[in-house]
Amino acid sequence: MRQIPSGSALHRLALDTATRCGVDVGAVAGDVMTVSPVNGERLVDVGWSDGAAVDDAVTRAQAAFVQWRRVPAPARGALVKRLGELLAVHKDDLATLISLEVGKITSEARGEVQEMIDICDFAVGLSRQLYGRTMPSERPGHRLMETWHPLGVVGVISAFNFPAAVWSWNTAVALVCGDPVIWKPSELAPLTALASHAILTQAIADCGAPADLTQVLVGGADVGEALVDHAGVALLSATGSTRMGRAVGPRVADRFGRSLLELGGNNAAVVSPTADLDLTTRGVVFSAAGTAGQRCTTMRRVIAHRSVVDELTDRLSSAYARLPIGNPLEDGTLVGPLIHRAAYEGMERAVEQAVDEGGKLVAGGGRDLEEAAPDAFYARPAIVRIDRQTDVVARETFAPLLYVLPYDDFEEAVALNNAVPQGLSSSVFTSDQAEAEKFLSAEGSDCGIVNVNIGTSGAEIGGAFGGEKETGGGRESGSDAWRAYMRRATNTVNYSGELPLAQGVSFTV
Protein backbone atom coordinates (compact mmCIF):
# COMPACT_ATOMS: atom_id res chain seq x y z
CA MET A 1 0.00 0.00 0.00
CA ARG A 2 1.26 3.50 -0.83
CA GLN A 3 2.17 5.33 2.35
CA ILE A 4 0.54 8.56 3.50
CA PRO A 5 2.36 10.45 6.27
CA SER A 6 0.81 10.70 9.72
CA GLY A 7 -0.69 13.91 11.01
CA SER A 8 2.00 14.31 13.67
CA ALA A 9 4.78 13.96 11.09
CA LEU A 10 3.29 16.59 8.82
CA HIS A 11 2.57 18.91 11.78
CA ARG A 12 6.21 18.81 12.87
CA LEU A 13 7.44 19.25 9.30
CA ALA A 14 5.18 22.26 8.78
CA LEU A 15 6.31 24.04 11.95
CA ASP A 16 10.01 23.36 11.36
CA THR A 17 9.78 24.52 7.74
CA ALA A 18 7.89 27.70 8.60
CA THR A 19 10.44 28.50 11.31
CA ARG A 20 13.30 28.24 8.81
CA CYS A 21 11.48 30.81 6.66
CA GLY A 22 11.41 33.25 9.58
CA VAL A 23 7.91 32.63 10.95
CA ASP A 24 7.56 32.93 14.74
CA VAL A 25 5.27 29.92 15.04
CA GLY A 26 4.49 30.68 18.66
CA ALA A 27 3.33 34.20 17.84
CA VAL A 28 1.02 33.11 15.03
CA ALA A 29 -0.51 30.16 16.87
CA GLY A 30 -4.22 30.33 17.59
CA ASP A 31 -7.40 28.33 17.77
CA VAL A 32 -8.30 27.98 14.06
CA MET A 33 -7.32 24.54 12.79
CA THR A 34 -6.03 23.97 9.28
CA VAL A 35 -6.08 20.56 7.64
CA SER A 36 -3.57 19.11 5.19
CA PRO A 37 -5.16 17.62 2.07
CA VAL A 38 -2.29 15.12 2.04
CA ASN A 39 -3.88 13.08 4.83
CA GLY A 40 -7.01 15.02 5.77
CA GLU A 41 -5.72 15.52 9.30
CA ARG A 42 -4.88 18.56 11.43
CA LEU A 43 -1.80 20.41 10.21
CA VAL A 44 -1.51 23.54 12.40
CA ASP A 45 -3.63 25.88 14.50
CA VAL A 46 -3.28 29.57 13.70
CA GLY A 47 -4.71 32.83 14.92
CA TRP A 48 -7.02 34.80 12.67
CA SER A 49 -7.44 38.52 12.21
CA ASP A 50 -10.93 39.94 11.81
CA GLY A 51 -12.36 42.65 9.63
CA ALA A 52 -11.63 45.30 12.26
CA ALA A 53 -7.88 44.78 11.69
CA VAL A 54 -8.12 46.06 8.13
CA ASP A 55 -8.56 49.72 9.04
CA ASP A 56 -5.36 49.75 11.11
CA ALA A 57 -3.48 47.89 8.38
CA VAL A 58 -4.59 50.42 5.75
CA THR A 59 -3.56 53.34 7.98
CA ARG A 60 -0.09 51.90 8.43
CA ALA A 61 0.19 51.05 4.73
CA GLN A 62 -0.77 54.60 3.75
CA ALA A 63 1.96 55.97 6.02
CA ALA A 64 4.46 53.63 4.34
CA PHE A 65 3.18 54.76 0.94
CA VAL A 66 3.98 58.41 1.70
CA GLN A 67 7.61 57.39 2.22
CA TRP A 68 7.90 54.75 -0.48
CA ARG A 69 6.50 56.81 -3.35
CA ARG A 70 9.39 59.26 -2.90
CA VAL A 71 11.98 56.51 -3.40
CA PRO A 72 13.24 56.35 -7.01
CA ALA A 73 11.86 53.34 -8.86
CA PRO A 74 15.30 51.73 -9.46
CA ALA A 75 15.93 51.92 -5.71
CA ARG A 76 12.55 50.28 -5.14
CA GLY A 77 13.73 47.59 -7.51
CA ALA A 78 16.64 46.84 -5.17
CA LEU A 79 14.14 45.67 -2.55
CA VAL A 80 12.48 43.31 -5.02
CA LYS A 81 15.89 42.04 -6.08
CA ARG A 82 16.63 41.16 -2.46
CA LEU A 83 13.25 39.44 -2.16
CA GLY A 84 14.10 37.26 -5.16
CA GLU A 85 17.45 36.34 -3.61
CA LEU A 86 15.81 35.27 -0.35
CA LEU A 87 13.11 33.33 -2.18
CA ALA A 88 15.87 31.37 -3.92
CA VAL A 89 17.42 30.54 -0.54
CA HIS A 90 14.05 29.31 0.80
CA LYS A 91 12.79 27.70 -2.40
CA ASP A 92 12.58 24.17 -1.00
CA ASP A 93 11.04 25.32 2.27
CA LEU A 94 8.28 27.30 0.59
CA ALA A 95 7.63 24.43 -1.80
CA THR A 96 7.25 22.06 1.15
CA LEU A 97 4.68 24.35 2.78
CA ILE A 98 2.75 24.60 -0.49
CA SER A 99 2.66 20.80 -0.78
CA LEU A 100 1.57 20.39 2.82
CA GLU A 101 -1.18 22.99 2.68
CA VAL A 102 -2.66 22.54 -0.82
CA GLY A 103 -1.37 19.14 -1.94
CA LYS A 104 0.78 20.11 -4.93
CA ILE A 105 3.40 17.60 -6.01
CA THR A 106 6.94 18.70 -5.23
CA SER A 107 7.95 19.65 -8.78
CA GLU A 108 4.86 21.85 -9.19
CA ALA A 109 5.34 23.41 -5.77
CA ARG A 110 8.96 24.20 -6.61
CA GLY A 111 7.75 25.57 -9.94
CA GLU A 112 5.41 27.93 -8.10
CA VAL A 113 8.30 29.30 -6.05
CA GLN A 114 10.42 29.60 -9.17
CA GLU A 115 7.62 31.68 -10.64
CA MET A 116 7.94 33.97 -7.62
CA ILE A 117 11.67 34.31 -8.25
CA ASP A 118 11.06 34.96 -11.95
CA ILE A 119 8.55 37.76 -11.31
CA CYS A 120 11.08 39.40 -9.01
CA ASP A 121 13.63 39.32 -11.84
CA PHE A 122 11.05 40.80 -14.19
CA ALA A 123 10.05 43.52 -11.74
CA VAL A 124 13.66 44.54 -11.08
CA GLY A 125 14.08 45.25 -14.80
CA LEU A 126 10.69 46.93 -14.86
CA SER A 127 11.85 49.37 -12.17
CA ARG A 128 13.91 51.10 -14.88
CA GLN A 129 11.21 50.88 -17.55
CA LEU A 130 8.08 52.55 -16.18
CA TYR A 131 7.83 54.49 -19.40
CA GLY A 132 5.56 57.36 -20.25
CA ARG A 133 5.20 59.03 -23.65
CA THR A 134 5.91 62.39 -25.25
CA MET A 135 3.31 63.40 -27.83
CA PRO A 136 3.45 66.25 -30.36
CA SER A 137 1.54 69.32 -29.20
CA GLU A 138 -0.53 71.32 -31.64
CA ARG A 139 0.62 74.52 -29.93
CA PRO A 140 4.08 75.97 -30.63
CA GLY A 141 6.43 76.10 -27.69
CA HIS A 142 4.56 73.41 -25.76
CA ARG A 143 5.47 69.88 -24.71
CA LEU A 144 2.72 67.28 -24.24
CA MET A 145 3.58 64.14 -22.30
CA GLU A 146 2.30 61.53 -19.85
CA THR A 147 3.87 60.41 -16.59
CA TRP A 148 3.12 57.49 -14.29
CA HIS A 149 3.02 57.74 -10.51
CA PRO A 150 2.52 55.34 -7.60
CA LEU A 151 -1.15 54.56 -7.05
CA GLY A 152 -1.54 53.76 -3.35
CA VAL A 153 -2.37 50.79 -1.16
CA VAL A 154 -2.91 47.52 -3.02
CA GLY A 155 -5.11 44.84 -1.46
CA VAL A 156 -4.54 41.26 -2.59
CA ILE A 157 -7.01 38.42 -2.04
CA SER A 158 -5.57 35.11 -3.22
CA ALA A 159 -6.92 31.59 -3.67
CA PHE A 160 -5.62 28.26 -2.37
CA ASN A 161 -4.42 26.80 -5.66
CA PHE A 162 -1.51 29.24 -6.06
CA PRO A 163 -1.07 30.22 -2.42
CA ALA A 164 2.13 32.23 -2.95
CA ALA A 165 2.73 32.94 -6.66
CA VAL A 166 -0.32 35.14 -7.17
CA TRP A 167 0.71 37.27 -4.20
CA SER A 168 4.20 37.62 -5.69
CA TRP A 169 2.84 38.68 -9.09
CA ASN A 170 1.05 41.54 -7.42
CA THR A 171 3.62 42.36 -4.78
CA ALA A 172 6.79 42.45 -6.87
CA VAL A 173 5.17 44.72 -9.44
CA ALA A 174 3.35 46.85 -6.86
CA LEU A 175 6.53 47.47 -4.88
CA VAL A 176 8.53 48.73 -7.88
CA CYS A 177 5.55 50.88 -8.84
CA GLY A 178 5.69 52.47 -5.38
CA ASP A 179 2.74 50.75 -3.67
CA PRO A 180 2.46 48.88 -0.35
CA VAL A 181 0.51 45.61 -0.24
CA ILE A 182 -1.99 44.19 2.25
CA TRP A 183 -2.57 40.48 1.66
CA LYS A 184 -5.57 38.41 2.63
CA PRO A 185 -4.41 34.86 1.74
CA SER A 186 -6.50 31.74 1.42
CA GLU A 187 -7.68 30.42 4.77
CA LEU A 188 -6.45 27.02 3.59
CA ALA A 189 -2.79 28.05 3.27
CA PRO A 190 -1.86 30.36 6.17
CA LEU A 191 1.68 29.04 6.74
CA THR A 192 2.64 29.56 3.11
CA ALA A 193 1.42 33.15 3.40
CA LEU A 194 3.13 33.79 6.71
CA ALA A 195 6.39 32.35 5.38
CA SER A 196 6.24 34.47 2.21
CA HIS A 197 5.49 37.54 4.32
CA ALA A 198 8.40 36.76 6.67
CA ILE A 199 10.79 36.47 3.73
CA LEU A 200 9.69 39.86 2.37
CA THR A 201 9.93 41.35 5.86
CA GLN A 202 13.56 40.21 5.97
CA ALA A 203 14.21 41.79 2.57
CA ILE A 204 12.63 45.04 3.78
CA ALA A 205 14.87 45.06 6.85
CA ASP A 206 17.96 44.31 4.75
CA CYS A 207 17.17 47.25 2.45
CA GLY A 208 15.99 49.74 5.09
CA ALA A 209 12.57 50.13 3.50
CA PRO A 210 9.39 51.00 5.46
CA ALA A 211 8.26 47.98 7.45
CA ASP A 212 4.57 48.35 6.63
CA LEU A 213 5.08 47.94 2.90
CA THR A 214 3.99 44.35 3.51
CA GLN A 215 1.19 43.17 5.75
CA VAL A 216 -0.64 39.86 5.88
CA LEU A 217 -4.04 39.34 7.47
CA VAL A 218 -4.91 35.68 7.90
CA GLY A 219 -8.64 35.47 8.39
CA GLY A 220 -12.05 34.73 6.97
CA ALA A 221 -14.43 36.36 4.55
CA ASP A 222 -14.90 39.38 6.80
CA VAL A 223 -11.27 40.39 6.25
CA GLY A 224 -11.69 40.17 2.49
CA GLU A 225 -14.92 42.12 2.59
CA ALA A 226 -13.31 44.87 4.67
CA LEU A 227 -10.48 45.17 2.12
CA VAL A 228 -12.99 45.29 -0.72
CA ASP A 229 -14.97 48.09 0.92
CA HIS A 230 -12.13 50.19 2.33
CA ALA A 231 -11.79 53.55 0.61
CA GLY A 232 -8.07 53.57 1.41
CA VAL A 233 -7.39 50.55 -0.80
CA ALA A 234 -6.66 52.02 -4.22
CA LEU A 235 -6.47 48.73 -6.09
CA LEU A 236 -8.10 45.46 -5.04
CA SER A 237 -6.65 42.41 -6.80
CA ALA A 238 -8.81 39.34 -6.22
CA THR A 239 -8.35 35.79 -7.46
CA GLY A 240 -11.15 33.29 -7.04
CA SER A 241 -14.46 32.14 -8.43
CA THR A 242 -16.69 34.04 -10.82
CA ARG A 243 -19.28 34.12 -8.04
CA MET A 244 -16.79 35.92 -5.81
CA GLY A 245 -15.94 38.35 -8.61
CA ARG A 246 -19.59 39.25 -9.12
CA ALA A 247 -19.64 40.44 -5.51
CA VAL A 248 -16.23 42.13 -5.44
CA GLY A 249 -16.33 44.11 -8.70
CA PRO A 250 -19.47 46.17 -8.04
CA ARG A 251 -18.51 46.90 -4.44
CA VAL A 252 -15.09 48.25 -5.40
CA ALA A 253 -16.62 50.22 -8.29
CA ASP A 254 -19.25 51.68 -5.97
CA ARG A 255 -16.49 53.47 -4.04
CA PHE A 256 -14.67 54.37 -7.30
CA GLY A 257 -11.76 52.08 -6.53
CA ARG A 258 -9.94 49.93 -9.03
CA SER A 259 -10.28 46.16 -9.17
CA LEU A 260 -8.20 43.52 -10.89
CA LEU A 261 -10.17 40.28 -11.14
CA GLU A 262 -8.77 36.83 -11.99
CA LEU A 263 -11.76 34.48 -11.94
CA GLY A 264 -12.90 31.18 -13.43
CA GLY A 265 -11.77 29.34 -16.54
CA ASN A 266 -13.28 26.62 -18.71
CA ASN A 267 -10.33 26.12 -20.97
CA ALA A 268 -10.34 24.12 -24.20
CA ALA A 269 -7.93 22.69 -26.73
CA VAL A 270 -8.98 22.34 -30.35
CA VAL A 271 -7.29 19.32 -31.95
CA SER A 272 -7.23 19.40 -35.73
CA PRO A 273 -6.80 16.48 -38.19
CA THR A 274 -3.19 17.57 -38.75
CA ALA A 275 -2.21 17.61 -35.06
CA ASP A 276 0.78 15.64 -33.81
CA LEU A 277 -1.12 13.31 -31.47
CA ASP A 278 1.96 12.39 -29.42
CA LEU A 279 2.56 16.06 -28.68
CA THR A 280 -1.14 16.65 -28.16
CA THR A 281 -1.49 13.81 -25.67
CA ARG A 282 1.39 15.06 -23.55
CA GLY A 283 0.08 18.62 -23.64
CA VAL A 284 -3.46 17.65 -22.74
CA VAL A 285 -2.54 15.29 -19.90
CA PHE A 286 -0.43 17.86 -18.08
CA SER A 287 -2.95 20.64 -18.59
CA ALA A 288 -5.92 18.49 -17.56
CA ALA A 289 -4.50 16.34 -14.74
CA GLY A 290 -1.66 18.49 -13.41
CA THR A 291 -2.28 20.11 -10.01
CA ALA A 292 -5.14 17.59 -9.71
CA GLY A 293 -7.14 19.81 -12.05
CA GLN A 294 -7.03 22.72 -9.60
CA ARG A 295 -5.63 25.48 -11.79
CA CYS A 296 -7.72 28.25 -13.27
CA THR A 297 -5.95 27.37 -16.54
CA THR A 298 -6.63 23.62 -16.25
CA MET A 299 -7.81 22.13 -19.52
CA ARG A 300 -11.44 21.09 -19.06
CA ARG A 301 -12.48 20.49 -22.68
CA VAL A 302 -10.88 18.84 -25.70
CA ILE A 303 -12.61 19.68 -28.99
CA ALA A 304 -11.19 17.14 -31.45
CA HIS A 305 -11.90 16.67 -35.14
CA ARG A 306 -14.13 13.68 -35.77
CA SER A 307 -11.34 11.98 -37.75
CA VAL A 308 -9.00 11.90 -34.73
CA VAL A 309 -11.31 12.03 -31.71
CA ASP A 310 -11.45 8.24 -31.19
CA GLU A 311 -7.70 7.74 -31.40
CA LEU A 312 -7.01 10.73 -29.18
CA THR A 313 -9.53 9.52 -26.59
CA ASP A 314 -7.83 6.12 -26.52
CA ARG A 315 -4.41 7.74 -26.10
CA LEU A 316 -5.62 9.97 -23.29
CA SER A 317 -7.38 7.09 -21.52
CA SER A 318 -4.22 4.99 -21.71
CA ALA A 319 -2.12 7.84 -20.29
CA TYR A 320 -4.62 8.44 -17.49
CA ALA A 321 -4.45 4.77 -16.48
CA ARG A 322 -0.71 5.18 -15.89
CA LEU A 323 -0.82 8.38 -13.83
CA PRO A 324 0.82 7.86 -10.41
CA ILE A 325 -1.59 9.18 -7.78
CA GLY A 326 -0.47 9.61 -4.20
CA ASN A 327 1.49 11.49 -1.57
CA PRO A 328 2.59 14.74 -3.25
CA LEU A 329 5.81 14.78 -1.23
CA GLU A 330 6.98 11.48 -2.77
CA ASP A 331 9.16 11.35 -5.87
CA GLY A 332 7.31 10.02 -8.87
CA THR A 333 3.85 11.19 -7.87
CA LEU A 334 2.12 13.15 -10.63
CA VAL A 335 -1.35 13.65 -9.15
CA GLY A 336 -1.86 14.68 -5.55
CA PRO A 337 -5.06 15.16 -3.57
CA LEU A 338 -7.97 17.48 -4.09
CA ILE A 339 -8.10 20.27 -1.55
CA HIS A 340 -11.08 18.88 0.40
CA ARG A 341 -14.24 16.76 0.38
CA ALA A 342 -16.37 19.44 -1.28
CA ALA A 343 -14.06 19.51 -4.30
CA TYR A 344 -14.32 15.74 -4.70
CA GLU A 345 -18.08 15.73 -4.30
CA GLY A 346 -18.38 18.51 -6.87
CA MET A 347 -16.41 16.38 -9.34
CA GLU A 348 -18.60 13.35 -8.69
CA ARG A 349 -21.77 15.36 -9.23
CA ALA A 350 -20.41 16.75 -12.49
CA VAL A 351 -19.56 13.26 -13.78
CA GLU A 352 -23.04 12.04 -12.89
CA GLN A 353 -24.67 15.00 -14.63
CA ALA A 354 -22.49 14.56 -17.71
CA VAL A 355 -23.57 10.92 -17.98
CA ASP A 356 -27.20 11.95 -17.52
CA GLU A 357 -26.74 14.46 -20.35
CA GLY A 358 -25.49 11.78 -22.74
CA GLY A 359 -21.82 11.46 -21.87
CA LYS A 360 -19.81 8.31 -21.20
CA LEU A 361 -17.11 7.98 -18.54
CA VAL A 362 -14.17 6.44 -20.45
CA ALA A 363 -11.35 6.86 -17.91
CA GLY A 364 -10.85 7.44 -14.23
CA GLY A 365 -13.44 8.61 -11.77
CA GLY A 366 -13.85 7.72 -8.12
CA ARG A 367 -11.42 7.89 -5.22
CA ASP A 368 -7.98 6.41 -4.75
CA LEU A 369 -6.09 5.72 -1.49
CA GLU A 370 -9.32 5.74 0.47
CA GLU A 371 -8.09 3.03 2.84
CA ALA A 372 -4.69 4.65 3.40
CA ALA A 373 -6.12 8.16 3.86
CA PRO A 374 -9.85 8.00 4.61
CA ASP A 375 -10.03 11.73 5.38
CA ALA A 376 -8.15 12.83 2.26
CA PHE A 377 -9.58 12.97 -1.26
CA TYR A 378 -7.38 11.54 -3.97
CA ALA A 379 -9.50 11.60 -7.13
CA ARG A 380 -8.72 9.54 -10.21
CA PRO A 381 -8.54 12.04 -13.10
CA ALA A 382 -11.57 11.40 -15.29
CA ILE A 383 -12.40 11.66 -18.98
CA VAL A 384 -15.98 11.91 -20.23
CA ARG A 385 -16.68 11.49 -23.94
CA ILE A 386 -19.71 13.55 -24.89
CA ASP A 387 -21.12 14.62 -28.26
CA ARG A 388 -22.41 18.07 -27.40
CA GLN A 389 -21.57 20.96 -25.10
CA THR A 390 -24.19 20.50 -22.41
CA ASP A 391 -24.85 22.57 -19.30
CA VAL A 392 -22.30 20.73 -17.18
CA VAL A 393 -19.63 21.00 -19.88
CA ALA A 394 -20.10 24.77 -20.02
CA ARG A 395 -19.63 25.01 -16.25
CA GLU A 396 -16.22 25.01 -14.58
CA THR A 397 -15.66 22.03 -12.28
CA PHE A 398 -12.50 22.66 -10.24
CA ALA A 399 -11.16 19.11 -10.37
CA PRO A 400 -9.42 16.75 -12.85
CA LEU A 401 -12.43 16.22 -15.10
CA LEU A 402 -11.91 16.45 -18.86
CA TYR A 403 -14.66 16.42 -21.50
CA VAL A 404 -13.86 15.25 -25.04
CA LEU A 405 -16.15 16.55 -27.80
CA PRO A 406 -16.08 16.05 -31.59
CA TYR A 407 -16.27 18.69 -34.32
CA ASP A 408 -16.61 18.59 -38.09
CA ASP A 409 -15.19 21.90 -39.36
CA PHE A 410 -12.84 24.45 -37.88
CA GLU A 411 -15.42 27.23 -37.56
CA GLU A 412 -17.55 24.88 -35.44
CA ALA A 413 -14.54 24.13 -33.22
CA VAL A 414 -13.85 27.82 -32.64
CA ALA A 415 -17.51 28.43 -31.87
CA LEU A 416 -17.47 25.60 -29.29
CA ASN A 417 -14.32 26.99 -27.72
CA ASN A 418 -15.99 30.38 -27.33
CA ALA A 419 -19.45 29.14 -26.31
CA VAL A 420 -18.83 29.17 -22.56
CA PRO A 421 -19.14 32.08 -20.11
CA GLN A 422 -15.45 32.02 -19.21
CA GLY A 423 -12.60 33.29 -21.36
CA LEU A 424 -9.25 32.55 -19.74
CA SER A 425 -7.04 30.13 -21.70
CA SER A 426 -7.25 28.15 -24.93
CA SER A 427 -5.06 26.28 -27.36
CA VAL A 428 -5.07 24.66 -30.77
CA PHE A 429 -3.02 21.64 -31.79
CA THR A 430 -2.47 21.75 -35.53
CA SER A 431 0.14 21.62 -38.28
CA ASP A 432 -2.03 23.79 -40.50
CA GLN A 433 -0.63 27.33 -40.44
CA ALA A 434 -3.89 28.86 -41.63
CA GLU A 435 -5.82 27.21 -38.78
CA ALA A 436 -3.25 28.37 -36.23
CA GLU A 437 -3.37 31.94 -37.50
CA LYS A 438 -7.17 31.96 -37.57
CA PHE A 439 -7.33 30.71 -33.98
CA LEU A 440 -5.03 33.58 -32.96
CA SER A 441 -6.99 36.17 -34.94
CA ALA A 442 -9.96 38.34 -34.02
CA GLU A 443 -12.23 35.63 -35.48
CA GLY A 444 -10.63 32.95 -33.35
CA SER A 445 -10.44 32.25 -29.64
CA ASP A 446 -12.01 34.92 -27.42
CA CYS A 447 -9.75 34.08 -24.47
CA GLY A 448 -7.05 36.19 -22.86
CA ILE A 449 -4.49 33.40 -23.41
CA VAL A 450 -4.41 31.75 -26.84
CA ASN A 451 -1.75 29.10 -27.56
CA VAL A 452 -0.64 26.97 -30.50
CA ASN A 453 0.69 23.42 -30.01
CA ILE A 454 0.93 23.76 -26.25
CA GLY A 455 -1.58 23.21 -23.47
CA THR A 456 -3.72 25.75 -21.69
CA SER A 457 -1.72 25.87 -18.45
CA GLY A 458 1.84 26.80 -17.56
CA ALA A 459 1.95 30.49 -18.52
CA GLU A 460 5.28 32.33 -18.29
CA ILE A 461 5.56 35.52 -16.24
CA GLY A 462 6.73 37.63 -19.19
CA GLY A 463 3.26 37.80 -20.71
CA ALA A 464 0.24 39.46 -19.14
CA PHE A 465 -1.93 36.86 -17.42
CA GLY A 466 -5.73 37.04 -17.39
CA GLY A 467 -8.88 36.51 -19.36
CA GLU A 468 -12.10 37.92 -20.72
CA LYS A 469 -15.85 37.55 -20.07
CA GLU A 470 -16.57 35.91 -16.70
CA THR A 471 -12.85 35.49 -16.09
CA GLY A 472 -12.90 39.16 -15.07
CA GLY A 473 -10.76 41.04 -17.56
CA GLY A 474 -7.81 41.66 -15.24
CA ARG A 475 -4.15 41.31 -16.22
CA GLU A 476 -1.30 40.46 -13.88
CA SER A 477 2.39 39.61 -14.12
CA GLY A 478 4.22 40.63 -17.31
CA SER A 479 3.93 42.88 -20.36
CA ASP A 480 2.30 46.20 -19.40
CA ALA A 481 0.25 44.80 -16.49
CA TRP A 482 2.23 47.24 -14.29
CA ARG A 483 -0.04 50.07 -15.42
CA ALA A 484 -2.83 48.78 -13.18
CA TYR A 485 -0.64 49.62 -10.16
CA MET A 486 0.05 53.22 -11.16
CA ARG A 487 -1.88 56.36 -12.01
CA ARG A 488 -1.37 58.25 -15.25
CA ALA A 489 -1.02 62.01 -15.51
CA THR A 490 -1.13 63.91 -18.80
CA ASN A 491 1.17 66.96 -18.65
CA THR A 492 1.40 70.05 -20.83
CA VAL A 493 4.45 72.28 -20.41
CA ASN A 494 4.34 75.76 -21.94
CA TYR A 495 7.77 77.26 -22.56
CA SER A 496 6.70 79.65 -25.33
CA GLY A 497 6.07 82.80 -23.31
CA GLU A 498 2.70 83.03 -25.05
CA LEU A 499 -0.67 81.47 -24.21
CA PRO A 500 -2.17 79.89 -27.34
CA LEU A 501 -5.21 77.73 -26.61
CA ALA A 502 -5.89 74.27 -28.02
CA GLN A 503 -8.32 73.82 -30.91
CA GLY A 504 -7.71 77.44 -31.94
CA VAL A 505 -9.92 78.81 -29.21
CA SER A 506 -9.67 82.59 -28.72
CA PHE A 507 -10.29 83.92 -25.21
CA THR A 508 -8.74 87.33 -24.69
CA VAL A 509 -9.39 89.29 -21.50
From TrEMBL:
It holds the Pfam family Aldedh. The active site is at E262. Belongs to the aldehyde dehydrogenase family. PROSITE patterns: ALDEHYDE_DEHYDR_GLU. Homotetramer. One of its GO terms (molecular function) is aldehyde dehydrogenase (NAD+) activity. This is Aldehyde dehydrogenase family protein. InterPro entries: Ald_DH_CS_GLU, Aldehyde_DH_dom, ALDH7A1-like. Residues 32-488 form the Aldehyde dehydrogenase domain. It comes from the Bacteria. The keyword Oxidoreductase applies. Keywords: NAD, Oxidoreductase.
